[in-house]
Design brief:
Layout: E1 2-3, E2 9-10, H1 17-21, H2 24-43, H3 48-67
Antiparallel strand pairs: 1-2
Helix pairs in contact: 2-3
Length: 74
Amino acid sequence: MLTGSQGEDVVAKPKGRLAKALRLEWLGQTAASVFWIASVLFYGINSHGDWLQLLAASAWLLANIAATWSPEED
C-alpha cells in the first residue's frame, strides 16, 4: 500500500468513464430511466402524455450517459 507525504494511506481510485459508470448512484439512476422507458413502451403510447413520459425518461438516460463524459470533479 502506498503512503502519502503525511503518512496517511493512499488508495488508488479508478479513473475514467468506466469508473463513473460503475458508481452506485449512476447505475441506479440509469436503471431507473431504462425501466421507465421500458414501462412506457410496454403499456403503449396512447396519448400525448405517454410521449412526454417517453421523452422525459429518454432525456434522463441521455443526461446520465453525458455525465460519464464530463470532466473529473475531484
